[in-house]
Amino acid sequence: MPADRRLALHATLPDRYAPFEVLASTIDHLGRLVALVADPAQGFVSIPHLPGLRPPPRYDAIAVICDETEIHEIALNDLGLWFTDIDTLGDGVVLAAARCLPSGIPYERYLEPVPRDELLLAANVRVIDGDGWTRAAFYAGDGIEQLMTDPRGNIWTSYFDESNYWAANPDGTCSKRSMLGLARWDKGEGPPWLASDTPGIAWCDCYALNVGRETVHACPYTDFPLVEIDANGIRAVTPNPVTRCSGLAISGPQLAFLDQHRVDGEYHWEIRGARKEGGAVVETGRQPLVLPEGRQPAGWARGKIGRDWTLWLHEDGDPRRWYRYEIDD
């Protein structure tokens, strides 16, 4: 059996936010912990079978950017959506609400083009500057799994298998598209670039996503190929035998896939190492992950923020404490 690999404790949300509910949390491309927090006394309610609280229809929140000992707060007033994802963009933040169902039309009309003025679509992604002003807000579809930004200012949204997006038609109607997989937005200006527009790749779900400095890598369900994307679109598609991978770190030809499973009530996080060789991915070994103090995780790995050779994780139900895995040189 390979030796356990201890994760490093990367960042912890400061104690001053202990009374607040954490609606969203991430690690940005500069390695900073970023969180959306709110006072639960505003009327937050519990959700069956989920660890978090649901906000009321209108609520106030604070976007918190932690750069080691320096903390920047952005006050956000009168939010009207349940924002579940956050990342930084410039000196501000971008927020996303994972679920965004249309209103104004019955479900029976989902399979036909619908006039745009009959379709009520919420702007479920919001770009906010460092002073709290909304600079852009746009509809990004239903079923967002991850929200990440890159150093060039692009906004990336990955989607799970229930996703759909109402796309505009030239005649003024909109049609519903399913299985989006992955989209790139230029700060909300113009239509998105959709990875699912590339023939030959099934994008039922984007299981693993790595948004690096220069390139983006993703492993879509159902076949889990390693898809490499640059500013011009999809650059390479490499067959990949590593399935169930829900997180990804990459350094040159080296790959580290996050796999996790449950045995006899215990949660196990595992890195499945691999290399790109001869136009394919070749698995090289497995390494169990444990937390810094050597204990087994108490829940599933969440977050799963991959950026180049680093993968950041937190335990299910504890978005205040983030751990770090890095590919060894």
| CATH second-level architecture | 6 Propeller
Total domains: 1
CATH superfamily: TolB, C-terminal domain
State the CATH class.
Mainly Beta
Mean pLDDT: 94
Structural class given helices, strands, pairing? mainly beta
Describe this structure in words.
This protein is mainly β and 329 residues long. It has one domain: Neuraminidase. Helix content is 0%, strand content 54%. It has no helices and 29 strands. The chain has strands at residues 5-6, 8-12, 21-27, 33-38, 45-46, 53-54, 59-67, 70-79, 85-89, 92-96, 114-115, 125-128, 134-138, 142-149, 155-168, 173-178, 182-185, 193-194, 205-211, 216-221, 226-230, 233-238, 247-251, 254-263, 266-277, 280-290, 301-307, 310-315, 321-326. The strands form seven sheets. Strands 11, 14, 15, 16, 17 and 18 form a six-stranded antiparallel beta sheet that branches. Strand 19 (205-211) and strand 20 form a beta hairpin. The chain is globular. The model has no long low-confidence stretch (mean pLDDT 94).
What attributes does this structure have?
mainly beta; six-stranded antiparallel sheet; Neuraminidase; globular
Put the structure in a nutshell.
The protein has 329 residues and is mainly β. The chain contains no helices and 29 strands.
Topology (elements, then pairings):
Elements: E1 5-6, E2 8-12, E3 21-27, E4 33-38, E5 45-46, E6 53-54, E7 59-67, E8 70-79, E9 85-89, E10 92-96, E11 114-115, E12 125-128, E13 134-138, E14 142-149, E15 155-168, E16 173-178, E17 182-185, E18 193-194, E19 205-211, E20 216-221, E21 226-230, E22 233-238, E23 247-251, E24 254-263, E25 266-277, E26 280-290, E27 301-307, E28 310-315, E29 321-326
Parallel strand pairs: 1-26
Antiparallel strand pairs: 2-29, 3-4, 4-7, 5-6, 7-8, 9-10, 10-12, 11-16, 12-13, 14-15, 15-16, 15-17, 17-18, 19-20, 20-21, 21-22, 23-24, 24-25, 25-26, 27-28, 28-29
